[in-house]
Amino acid sequence: MISDYLDRLGGALSFDRALAHRVRVEIEDHLREGTAADPSPDRRGAEKRAIAACGDPRALAAEFAVIALAKRTRRLGVGVFLGIVGVLIAMKARVAWYALMQCAMSDDVRSVAAFVGSIDAGAFWASLVLGIAGAAYLGGGRAPTPLARTRRFRLLCAAATAALTVSVISDGVLTSIRLATADESAPYFPVFSILFEISCTVVLIAMIRDLAQRATFTAALQKM
Amino acid sequence: MLKGHLDMIVLAALSSGPAHGYAVIEEIRRKSGQAFDLPEGTIYPVLHRLEQAGLLSSRWVTADTGRRRRIYALTRRGARALIERRAVWQRFSEAIGGLLADAGPRGSPA
Fold first, then answer.
1. Hey, are the CB atoms on B65 and A32 less than 8 Å from each other?
2. Which of A68, A85, A171, B92 is the 20 to 30 Å CA partner of A16?
3. Summary mean pLDDT of chain B
4. CATH number at residue B30
5. Which one of B27, B28, B40, B70 would you mutate to disrupt binding with A, by most A Cβ within 10 Å of its Cβ?
6. In chain A, which ranges are continuous DSSP H helix?
7. Is residue B107 included in any domain, yes or no?
């Protein structure tokens, strides 16, 4: 009977295996202890009472899911901050490397590079502003439910990441233009820095997708 | 009303030392003179939430029965939070006590 209850609880949290495992082990200990403490000789009845005292497994799972979602939401906030800072550092380091290696750009492509550069700068600043707006919302924004709060924050993070992606693509174009026209035989650092920027955005997109999936599962649990 | 004070109740139950969820529930029953008989499942999400907030720490241990068990303990921040909440509650309780003391049964106006 206890195993059935735990299976239902674990099943409801199957979208987060670590949480499901922890909750399952914790609640199992609780139910076994509650059963052992029951003075009745009827063990099946004792299990039944322990389970009844614990409540509906789906309702319990929904409470755990909301708490886990809040944790992931904060983690996404940290991720967006680190992603934006990471891209900024990579951009600045690349510019410093160009100066150090005297890797000048050909005059033929300067106007194109200036245009792409303006898109790059605009997109980066937009991502920064949206990231700050997200952090401010997480810090003090009001919402009717934790799920609504997560959804709004996620939208701000998605917008910040979209802007950051545009900035990274522009960086890639600028780097390609510069390296194609420059006399640089081993452009490891610029290529590495672009790969790093791409990694930052890919990780952020994965985090946003993960949060969206968890929010969907949590909302489904709450509806039941 | 009780639900709004669950955090304080759980922190208070853990003030006497680290404990696992079942022991926390038993401690709440004991300290409240059996007055607070909460639905047992509600305590675990509270423990998780307080841990996330940094007010509790937790670790796995193996109980005498051989089962794995999660033990929760107040962190320094949690102990401070309990002191603050206790002071707020004390003021609230005194204020309500003062109000109720003046609100004894009186005869209806003639």
1. yes
2. A85
3. 86
4. 1.10.10.10
5. B40
6. 2-12, 17-37, 43-54, 57-100, 110-140, 146-181, 188-223
7. no
